[in-house]
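Just curious: can you write a single protein's sequence together with how it folds?
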Amino acid sequence: MKNVIAIIPARAGSKRISNKNIMEFMGKPMIAWTIEAALESGIFTDILVSTDGEDIAELSRSMGASVPFLRNSAYADDLTPVSMATVDSLIQMEQHKQVHYDIVVQLMPNCPCRTADDIAASYDNFLTTNADFQISMFRFGWMNPWWAVELDEKTMRPKPLFPEALKKRSQDLGKLYCPTGAVWIADAKELKGQKTFYGEGYAVFPLGWRNAVDIDNMDDLRMAEVIKSMDMS
């Protein structure tokens, strides 16, 4: 049996959407969807919410997550990579419980459409590979990054990122994928050493785009609400 910890990074300060992690989303606090999915997956020895906010901590405890300490203030600003906060929380939890974890799964609370089945499938895939790191991604669908351009702010003239792709039909272009914070997995020892989930030879596990939505702004929020309402109907 593996000793597996889920870490849910939930910083209190959110600039684009105020109190995003605990705001109401489809009848529940945003973070509740992630905690419930983690519990339902049945994978984890511990489910740790890493936060610097007492209100988030209290809510998370009431839902069955563990918050034995608040996040180190050095990792509580919006400039610090999330992976660094996760690594620090992992080390703190190991010291707190006097245990060593084999695997760490990072679950971002702004991905409320990700399900327990997504977590379980991602974890099963991680166990069958030899990779030390695995990132969840989704395939670009109605958007086509191959035809993306940068615009000069003064002239508004476009500069194609992939000029040769503009000459091809969409069906002749390769499949492209985008990272989502839904389910990131790593060997705990390797994560503490490399301090990033983009470690050497990291693997990818694709999720359906509907389950992979990251809520970072109001447009994302509205889209996630539509998706969740369809799933709940």
In short: The mean pLDDT is 94. Residues 82-97 form the longest helix (16 residues). Residues 4-138+178-232 form a domain with the Spore Coat Polysaccharide Biosynthesis Protein SpsA; Chain A fold (CATH 3.90.550.10). The longest strand covers residues 133-139.
